[in-house]
């Protein structure tokens, strides 16, 4: 399957299919990746174990000058210090303005490598090879960032990839927890955009959890389509793109309070989406919005409540630091129906606080 992210003045393809990793050299060439300038692959320890060697070999035999850097697995690699080590590697390897940085891995590697590509020499080319389900979201749309200990994704840029190459076969080695976590973003794409897709997910949850290639391919195609459509309409998050943050205001705060890594991103936003659905119902959405949302996450094996030992004050202050908090008001994505959300630019922090308490 192939999709296009159309940004008006430029566009890029998303390839989704089985065995695409073996066609990387061919697709790189098709999209003009230079043979003359060094190319750098960024991956993490888990991913590198299985997928880095074959990719390097293939690119080298096609004539590419490749260097690789493998960072530790996990959210802690989205830091300024790991970012610096990526830049150091790029300098040592002599990457120039025509070089490409390739992200081979999940959202952590994608965000880190993407930010390095955005910053190195004020921006060089960048290719996403996502290897997690979650990364169907992070690899499309061009938001790249690293974390600060006080706030997630706060140091970043918009930097679109040249291509996204999504090989479904790589997903077969994902641990169960990462499968469930990634499905949280798939569900999000249904909840914000497409009630029919939400029903399809409910019916096919067991197949998705068992990584049935056919169902997974369809779900990721649909998820990427929603993301691509939203980003095409509003690349820089002037308005519409903010709907992609459903569940993320609470979710990011939970991640920050938990210390990055205790909750996966998908787990945190699943709880956040349940909270947002609760708020939606408080503000007039039909009760089923909450019920369906909660049921979906339970059937996916994701958490739907906040662990009792998380401090509400700490969660609220983390939320205030989040960039979605502007001019004394909280911007919050509120579900109004299944498949529909609204951006509330004047959300009451009190209501959010009460909801956080209820989720415990
Ligand atoms: P991740 O990159 O840490 O991957 C999860 C785990 O799976 C890691 O331990 C990794 O080593 C391992 N792994 C990856 N691919 C594997 C494979 N094929 N087989 C076996 N193990 C594999 O996390 P993630 O969930 O992919 O991404 C989360 C990050 O994405 C968060 O930092 C989040 O903020 C970011 N994100 C960014 C955007 C965006 O628009 N830029 C959107 C959503 C999420
Ligand atoms: Zn997310």
UniProtKB/TrEMBL annotation:
Family: Belongs to the sugar phosphate cyclases superfamily. Dehydroquinate synthase family.
Name this polypeptide is given: 3-dehydroquinate synthase
Function, as annotated: Catalyzes the conversion of 3-deoxy-D-arabino-heptulosonate 7-phosphate (DAHP) to dehydroquinate (DHQ).
Subcellular locations according to the entry: Cytoplasm
Cofactor(s) this protein cannot do without: NAD(+); Co(2+); Zn(2+)
Cofactor note: Binds 1 divalent metal cation per subunit. Can use either Co(2+) or Zn(2+).
Domain 3-dehydroquinate synthase C-terminal: 182-324
Keyword NAD on entry: yes
Record field: catalytic activity: 7-phospho-2-dehydro-3-deoxy-D-arabino-heptonate = 3-dehydroquinate + phosphate
Pfam families: DHQ_synthase, DHQS_C
UniProt cross-references to SUPFAM superfamilies, sorted A to Z: Dehydroquinate synthase-like
Positions of the 3-dehydroquinate synthase N-terminal domain: 69-180
Binding-site positions, Zn(2+): 185, 248, 265
Pathway annotation: Metabolic intermediate biosynthesis; chorismate biosynthesis; chorismate from D-erythrose 4-phosphate and phosphoenolpyruvate: step 2/7
InterPro entries: Dehydroquinate_synthase, DHQ_synth_AroB, DHQ_synth_fam, DHQS/DOIS_N, DHQS_C
Domain of life: Bacteria
GO molecular-function term, one example from the UniProt record: 3-dehydroquinate synthase activity
Record carries keyword Metal-binding: yes
């Amino acid at each position: 399957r192939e999709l296009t992210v159309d940004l008006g003045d430029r566009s890029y393809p998303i390839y989704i299919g089985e065995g695409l990793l073996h066609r990387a050299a061919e697709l790189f060439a098709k999209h003009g990746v230079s043979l003359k300038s060094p190319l750098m692959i960024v991956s993490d320890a888990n991913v590198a174990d299985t997928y880095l060697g074959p990719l390097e070999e293939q690119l080298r035999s096609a004539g590419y000058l490749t260097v690789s850097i493998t960072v530790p697995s996990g959210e802690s690699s989205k830091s300024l210090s790991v970012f610096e080590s990526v830049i150091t590697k790029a300098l040592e390897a002599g990457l120039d303005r025509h070089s490409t940085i390739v992200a081979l891995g999940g959202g952590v590697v994608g965000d880190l490598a993407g930010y390095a590509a955005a910053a190195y020499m004020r921006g060089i080319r960048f290719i996403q090879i996502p290897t997690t389900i979650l990364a169907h979201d992070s690899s499309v749309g061009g938001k790249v960032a690293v974390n600060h200990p006080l706030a997630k994704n706060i140091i970043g840029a918009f930097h679109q990839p040249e291509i996204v190459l999504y090989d479904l076969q790589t997903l077969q080695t994902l641990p169960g927890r990462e499968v469930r976590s990634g499905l949280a973003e798939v569900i999000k794409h249904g909840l914000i955009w497409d009630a029919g897709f939400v029903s399809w997910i409910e019916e096919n949850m067991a197949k998705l959890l068992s990584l049935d290639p056919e169902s997974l391919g369809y779900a990721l195609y649909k998820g990427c389509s929603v993301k691509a459509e939203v980003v095409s309409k509003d690349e820089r998050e002037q308005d519409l793109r903010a709907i992609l943050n459903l569940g993320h205001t609470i979710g990011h705060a939970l991640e920050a309070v938990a210390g990055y890594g205790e909750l996966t991103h998908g787990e945190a936003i699943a709880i956040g989406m349940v909270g947002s659905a609760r708020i939606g119902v408080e503000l007039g959405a039909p009760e089923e919005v909450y019920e369906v949302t909660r049921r979906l996450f339970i059937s996916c094996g994701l958490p739907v409540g906040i662990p009792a030992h998380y401090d509400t004050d700490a969660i609220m202050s983390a939320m205030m630091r989040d960039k979605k908090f502007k001019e004394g008001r909280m911007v919050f994505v509120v579900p109004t129906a299944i498949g529909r959300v609204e951006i509330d630019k004047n959300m009451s922090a009190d209501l959010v606080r009460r909801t956080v308490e209820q989720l415990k």
